[in-house]
Amino acid sequence: MASLVRHAIGRMASNASSTSSSSRSRKSSSSWGRRRPRDSLEKIRERKDSVPHVSCQPLPQIRNFSVQDSDGTDDDEQTLSLPVLRPPINRNVVCERYPKGKASLLVFLLNVIVIYAYGAAITGIVDIFQKENNEANGKKLPIDNTSLHFIKLLFEYCISRISFPVTGFIADVYIGRWRMIYLSLFLLLTGYVIIAVGFTVEGQSSVDTPLLLKNFINGIGFLFLCVGGGAFEATIIPFGVDQLQGASSAEISSYFYSFYFSRNLGMGSGLVVSAILSYAGNTLIDIQEIPKELEQLYRVVQPLVTTVTLTVGLILMICFHHWFFKNTLWENPVKLIARVLCYAATVKRHLPVRNRAFRYGEERKRRIELAKMTYDGKFPDEKVEDVKAFCRILLILLTLTPAMFSINGFDVLLSQETNQTLVKLYNSSYVETDLFQNLYWGVNITAILFTLPVVNFLVIPCFPKLTIRSRIGIGCVLYCIAGLCLVVIHAAPLVNGSQNSEVSGTQLAFVLIPALIIAVAEVLTTVSVLEFIYAQSPESMKGLLTGLYFLFFGLSSIPATALYYLFKDTKENRVLLAFHAVFTILMVVGTVFYVVAAALHRNRQRHDEDSLQERLIIENQLHSTITA
Prior knowledge:
Layout: H1 2-35, H2 37-50, E1 61-68, E2 74-84, H3 94-97, H4 100-136, H5 146-175, H6 177-204, H7 211-242, H8 249-286, H9 292-319, H10 333-346, H11 381-400, H12 405-413, H13 416-425, H14 430-462, H15 468-495, H16 506-510, H17 512-536, H18 542-555, H19 557-566, H20 572-600, H21 609-627
Antiparallel strand pairs: 1-2
């Protein structure tokens, strides 16, 4: 009897234990359902898609963790391996945590060297050309020198800017960004050597070199300079971002501000050197009897200094080439864009009608969707989305083109031809307007160098909701405000009844106020546009879109120059007012177009191989957990 009782009690205990284990398993399954780790990871991936994409990023690390019961105890039988995203990297210690940080610093140094040699240092060489042409024509001041101004405009703003998208496309598709930077340095070095050799041969020869032959030799050197400079500027931006493998979005955003800081630092250095040489040249011209060797040294010193500087940059590239990350080649984006657009335009099919209630919330499909394999097309869905992203970014760049007239309008205003107008308009000498020109560029570059750290380290962290498109819009509004300031400055003498243009020299100082506004607007617009292109464009189209932006920026100076010569024959006191009023209206119209395009723009959502592999890992682990 006792044995029967003990047996019954044992069976009751076993049934109770099985019941508790089943209830515990139900609790664990219910707690697993409440946690929804898959939904949280989808949110993480959405945040990851919204930040700029870095090519060749390593797979996320795998870390095991145990699923806990509702009572807080661990269940050793249920373990799940999920990808853990890398935490944000502090931009102050990037060089310590990543060896590739040294490559980024070397890119900044190389940018300073090349921009000094290519950008602002060209001003000193053009000044030498103008002095030689004026001496040959028997003129004392560089006025009515229209042919040389248009030659400079043709080389610097047409050939150089056209080479931007071409070289960016070739670097991404055929030879690689690393080799394109090498090629650009060789082209720049060749151009300066040709100019230096031309000046040296001219000084050593006993017979005066014809003016046409000198301009032809110098033109060949300028051709090499413009093509090499365009190739470097179009390639160095995506090449520098390639060095930040595995970096956070904050670090990549900081790279663009640091890059633009180094660019303006190079321009400022070249401006100081060219101003010193220009002052020395004017001093030599004032001296009646100067040795021929001293005059020859003045002509050779500018090309010689830039040649030595470029040689140092080339040596740095050769010695530290192992620091750099060499990207792979990509498919032809122009061919892909043409094929997708032609297929979408010629296909004789229609998109399916949204005849179900749960599909009414989707956006209206465009005809380009017919090229997707989802709708029986010939191209993968990601390729078609790349083409759509390219078209959206191109629309944004086109709407920004009128807003670029402000900087280019100042460039035309402060050129040698407009200095002649300032001489007549303000009854001042050429020396005063020349000093004002150097003062303007000094104020502009100094303001940019101070604004960049403020925006990077104060404005963006304090206003995290200020998106890239919002920053571009604020910059466009500041451009319009600067244009209105210029209109008011040049309309004030007309309102006061000053028809003889007897304006005091203090009015020149008022022009520095819109110069400061333009500097802030340039930081907000240019840097944000480069960041926007990198964040939204496909990897194979980054060089092409960066080159197109610089192309539009350079070509916008041609209408500005045409507007100046259109109003050149009017009354002198109305020239600058009409000039600034016209392109201010164009800036306002362009800003309105940009606001509309930015409101309709949709960010690119990527589903690359990394995210697909993460999804497969999660689904496999969840499937194995459920079946177990």
